[in-house]
């Protein structure tokens, strides 16, 4: 393969998926320049992780909902409700911190089952069910908190979103433990990618050229290690980043390598064909919303830990941020397309843009306008790709 053909393959093969990574690098580079490098400083990178982790957790569940052809407008209210339940038990009634977390997860599962029942078994569109849920669960939050805020949580609860793992290994100006964990993650990613490539070759499926495969692994590894080095120079490895990493890994496996994941894609891609193929559509849709409820509860625990309390207005507009992350990350408006990693990159783009504009002192109203335009352009790109593909087939 010549250098020209390799370059062409990088920028034309699966443009929809690769383009988002190129855009992410460009946006990070732009704001790094505009903020005189403050964006990439150790303290600021740590703050980005802590500030946007709950949005990324929501985006994991939301992208599965969107792939199946649905939408969930209630996740912000569920974040508030689960945080409120946890706060009432732990702060008001003096229960152990872990009881509050378990109660929040239980409430999230019940909420997901409630909405999954109406969507899957009654047949009401998810847009209507979750719009009703947004109002219902916000009202329940006000009832649980009795219209007042509760704080503070005990120190153990606060560590969920504000704790760090560091100091296990000595370092000179940086935390070696953070670098070791990052290195293990890179090695794991490389091994997993190589095994996936070998499996695809065994079944004579198309794969990227080996030099490009190696280049991709090296570039991703370099970015991860550079990011970890900056974290290690601040406070070490955030606990919430470990939680997020485990969730991303687990749900990447679920969506790409399990029967449930294949069924989700088939339902979103062609519902009628999925039904004819024997997919239990109602059951799959039910569990999609149970899963969204659980992830909303995890996000609720993380957010309440981060804010060190529960507020009636918590989670406001979180659903829009999560939905935007999915669409910017490559999910299709008509379902059947999307990846967990793409949603993560989309969420990081939103986070970097927000953080960068805050560092530059840009007015909040202008920030909202810019983020709205980015979302509009992402959806327009989705529609453009569909039309181009349709024209090519015809």
From TrEMBL:
<keyword id="KW-0997">Cell inner membrane</keyword>
<dbReference type="GO" id="GO:0005886">
    <property type="term" value="C:plasma membrane"/>
</dbReference>
<dbReference type="InterPro" id="IPR001851">
    <property type="entry name" value="ABC_transp_permease"/>
</dbReference>
<keyword id="KW-0813">Transport</keyword>
<feature type="transmembrane region" description="Helical">
    <location>
        <begin position="235"/>
        <end position="254"/>
    </location>
</feature>
<feature type="transmembrane region" description="Helical">
    <location>
        <begin position="20"/>
        <end position="43"/>
    </location>
</feature>
<dbReference type="Pfam" id="PF02653">
    <property type="entry name" value="BPD_transp_2"/>
</dbReference>
<keyword id="KW-0472">Membrane</keyword>
<feature type="transmembrane region" description="Helical">
    <location>
        <begin position="119"/>
        <end position="137"/>
    </location>
</feature>
<protein>
    <recommendedName>
        <fullName>Xylose transport system permease protein XylH</fullName>
    </recommendedName>
</protein>
<feature type="transmembrane region" description="Helical">
    <location>
        <begin position="97"/>
        <end position="114"/>
    </location>
</feature>
<keyword id="KW-1003">Cell membrane</keyword>
<dbReference type="GO" id="GO:0022857">
    <property type="term" value="F:transmembrane transporter activity"/>
</dbReference>
<keyword id="KW-0812">Transmembrane</keyword>
<feature type="transmembrane region" description="Helical">
    <location>
        <begin position="49"/>
        <end position="68"/>
    </location>
</feature>
<feature type="transmembrane region" description="Helical">
    <location>
        <begin position="73"/>
        <end position="91"/>
    </location>
</feature>
<comment type="function">
    <text>Part of the binding-protein-dependent transport system for D-xylose. Probably responsible for the translocation of the substrate across the membrane.</text>
</comment>
<feature type="transmembrane region" description="Helical">
    <location>
        <begin position="206"/>
        <end position="229"/>
    </location>
</feature>
<keyword id="KW-1133">Transmembrane helix</keyword>
<keyword id="KW-0762">Sugar transport</keyword>
<feature type="transmembrane region" description="Helical">
    <location>
        <begin position="176"/>
        <end position="194"/>
    </location>
</feature>
<feature type="transmembrane region" description="Helical">
    <location>
        <begin position="284"/>
        <end position="303"/>
    </location>
</feature>
């Amino acid at each position: 393969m010549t250098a020209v053909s390799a370059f062409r393959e990088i920028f034309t093969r699966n443009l929809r998926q690769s383009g988002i990574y190129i855009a992410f690098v460009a946006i990070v580079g732009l704001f790094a320049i505009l903020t005189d490098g403050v964006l990439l400083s150790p303290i600021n990178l740590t703050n980005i992780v802590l500030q946007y982790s709950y949005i990324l957790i929501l985006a994991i569940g939301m992208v599965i909902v969107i792939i199946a052809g649905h939408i969930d407008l209630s996740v912000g209210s569920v974040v508030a409700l689960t945080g409120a339940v946890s706060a009432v038990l732990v702060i008001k009634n003096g229960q152990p911190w872990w009881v509050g977390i378990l109660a929040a997860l239980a409430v999230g599962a019940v909420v997901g089952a409630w909405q999954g029942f109406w969507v899957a078994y009654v047949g009401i569109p998810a847009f209507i069910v979750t719009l009703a849920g947004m109002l219902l669960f916000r009202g329940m939050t006000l009832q649980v908190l009795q219209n007042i805020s509760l704080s503070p949580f005990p120190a153990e609860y606060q560590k969920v979103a504000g704790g760090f793992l560091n100091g296990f290994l000595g370092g000179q100006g940086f935390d070696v433990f953070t670098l070791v964990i990052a290195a293990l993650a890179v090695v794991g990613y490389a091994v997993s990618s190589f095994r996936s490539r070998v499996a695809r070759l065994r079944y004579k499926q198309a794969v990227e050229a080996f030099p490009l495969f190696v280049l991709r692994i090296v570039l991703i590894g370099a970015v991860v290690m550079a990011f970890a080095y900056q974290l290690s120079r601040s406070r070490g490895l955030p606990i919430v980043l470990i939680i997020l990493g485990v969730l991303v890994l687990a749900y990447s496996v679920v969506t790409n390598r399990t029967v449930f994941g294949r069924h989700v894609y088939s339902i979103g891609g062609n519902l009628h064909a999925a039904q004819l193929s024997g997919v239990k559509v109602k059951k799959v849709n039910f569990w999609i919303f149970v899963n969204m409820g659980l992830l909303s509860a995890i996000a609720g625990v993380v957010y309440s830990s981060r804010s060190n309390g529960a507020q009636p207005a918590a989670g406001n507009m979180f659903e829009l941020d999560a939905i935007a992350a999915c669409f910017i990350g490559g999910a299709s408006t008509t379902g059947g397309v999307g990846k967990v990693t793409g949603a993560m990159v989309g969420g990081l783009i939103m986070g970097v843009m927000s953080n960068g504009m805050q560092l530059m002192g840009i007015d909040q109203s202008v920030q909202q306008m810019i983020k709205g335009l980015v979302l509009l352009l992402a959806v327009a790109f989705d529609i453009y790709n569909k039309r181009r593909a349709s024209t090519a087939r015809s």
